Amino acid sequence: MNGDSASRRAVMAVVRPATSGGEPPRSRPVADSVAFGWRALLKIKHMPEQLFDVIVTPVMFTVMFTYLFGSALAGSPHVYLQFLLPGILVQTVMFTSIYTGFTLNTDFSKGIFDRFRSMPVWRPAPIVGAMLGDSARYTVSSLIVVAIGLAMGFRPESGLAGILWSLLLLDLFAIGIGWVFTILGLLARTPSTVMTLGWLVLMPLTFVSNIYVDPATMPGWLQAIVGVNPVSLLVTAIRDIMAGTVTAEMVGFALAAPAVIATVCVPLALRLYGRER
Amino acid sequence: MTVDSSLAIQADGLAKSFRGSPALAGVDLRVRQGSIYGLLGPNGAGKTTTVRLLATLLRPDAGNAHILGYDVVREPEEVRRRISLTGQFASVDEDLTGRDNLILLGRLLGFRWSAARVRATELLDAFDLAEAAKRQVKTYSGGMRRRLDIAASVVRTPDLLFLDEPTTGLDPRSRGQVWQIVRALADSGTTVLLTTQYLEEADQLADRIAVVDRGTIIAEGTPTELKASVGRDVLRLTLRDAGQRETARDLIVGQLGRRVHLEADQRVLAVQLSGSDEALPILDAMARAGLRADEFALGTPSLDEVFFALTGHPAEPADGESEESALEAHR
Ligand SMILES: Nc1ncnc2c1ncn2[C@@H]1O[C@H](COP(=O)(O)OP(=O)(O)O)[C@@H](O)[C@H]1O
Ligand SMILES: [Mg+2]
């Protein structure tokens, strides 16, 4: 009983009388989004097994494809690596972007979102914050692929600058594409649905592209499909950046699809997020 | 209808259906600022739906509600600036530490990083969570989680705090701690809307209680008024042998023609009397039938009995099946 009244006093001491709290808080777009970005980073910190996926898969693909196909496709693994690595970067970021939908779906079904949605928080902040966290994930996984590549003999013409520009372009692309997964995350009933549907979209997008093989060897109809695949456009842009031959037009092509997707999906995602559940 | 902005909550005719089945069917509420208001009702009564409507998470199908004078549908932002919600299911982030949860909420409520950290430490100390501050919430016990959940709602002290079943599933000690916290919040001037399935809890904490059943409010008043509205004299018997309860009930029903309430304790039954002079004949008849009572008491009804009298079914069906069928038989 004594312990109880002590706790009552302790609580009294930290609860400000309702009238003295000053002006009640308002939503702040930037600060709220950054706060949610911080939360996303904390989650990555507490769930390193997620990073495991992000790290192991790209390492595996880079090493496996280079030595498996290198000699057959390009004469030597070393030559093939110069061609493959930009593609693997894109593949890695694409695969990582599924997590956007996965984490949002896990998150939104929890009681804490009732708290957030009953607070004076900028409405899109949880989604924007999640994307900030995803950017960190994209950057980590890209850097790992680049590091592995460099260790295996990848030598881009445009050096460090080329790598940095590539990372920036990848991040922009992934943030645009990520809205598809955001919507998937908001619509799907369970996180595993997000994963299943996500792979269904990602598999053809990544494999029917120019990531692994020069489309010149493909039949004409397939070349046509591969040619308009946004993934191919991005891979080409990154190859050109690494080679130092990139044009503004090429970057524009690469960013067209994510820009369109974002334009369509952002308002839709905000509507879905705002609806009651 | 005029909006009284001195009220913390003013709701009129709130209704909400989910896929055609009504969860709330016209709820009116008046909650004075600075009071503790209890929504009392069994599972599925519509308590959470009411809270979610008032906290701007759901839109009413009909009716309207004002929080401190602001319309929940037309001015949700203004409402959100003044309320906090501790939901029925953990409204803290299980993956984060207790401390990071509080810092995050501080940031979202406009604190600077440094102020948010100071505030988090202060709250963790006061809510007896300092030792667990750096552990992920998923490692917390039920009581710790609840305390953190309430602390999270007062990072900035709101004008109105919603607590949805704050002690469901807690052990008696943790429940006592939560009660002290709620009292402390009310002492500081915060209005608290609390939902509960526990009659004792509403009785202990609330200044006024609304009894919710199947989406409507079936009674409203102070705990004393509610008890008085049912009648003053209740005879409560504790039998020596729980196995004799059915026989005792049949005997009393036969004698008074009134419903007998079987309490959660298998040996206890209670019946409403129209006057204390009805008590002796019952005891007499029981003695002649060989039914032995260890204890009997004549007094004002408990909220449990109030609920039974108001709804015709028990609030917390301990042996719900037999009770329901017994009721049917004697109606
Ligand atoms: N999101 C929902 N979808 C469908 N039915 C719901 C939903 N929320 C509540 N209900 C239904 O509405 C009724 C009232 O539920 P609720 O407000 O949660 O009751 P309480 O909190 O008093 O236990 C119940 O029958 C419940 O099944
Ligand atoms: Mg409920």
Q: What percent of residues of chain B adopt helix (DSSP H or I)? A: 25-40%
* Main sheet attributes: strand count, strand direction, barrel closure of chain A: none
Low-confidence stretches of chain B: 317-331
SS strand fraction of chain B: 25-35%
Tell me the span between the first and last alpha carbons of chain A.
41 Å
What would you call the structural class of chain A? mainly alpha
Structurally, the number of domains of chain B stands at: 2
- Give the rounded overall mean pLDDT of chain B: 88
> How many helical elements of chain B?
12
SSE-based structural type of chain B: alpha/beta
Instruction: Give the class-level CATH name of the largest domain in chain B.
Output: Alpha Beta
How many domains make up the coordinates of chain A? Answer: 1
CATH homologous superfamily identity of the largest domain in chain B:
P-loop containing nucleotide triphosphate hydrolases
Q: Kindly state the mean pLDDT of chain A as a whole number?
A: 88
Order of helices and strands of chain B: EEEHEEHEHHHEHEHEEHEHEEHEHH
Radius of gyration of chain B: 23 Å
Given the structure, what is the number of helices of chain A?
11
Compute the number of strand runs of chain B: 14
* Topology order of chain A in helix (H) and strand (E) letters: HHHHHHHHHHH
**In percent, how helical is the residue content of chain A?**
over 70%
Strand order of the largest sheet of chain B: 6-7-8-3-9-10
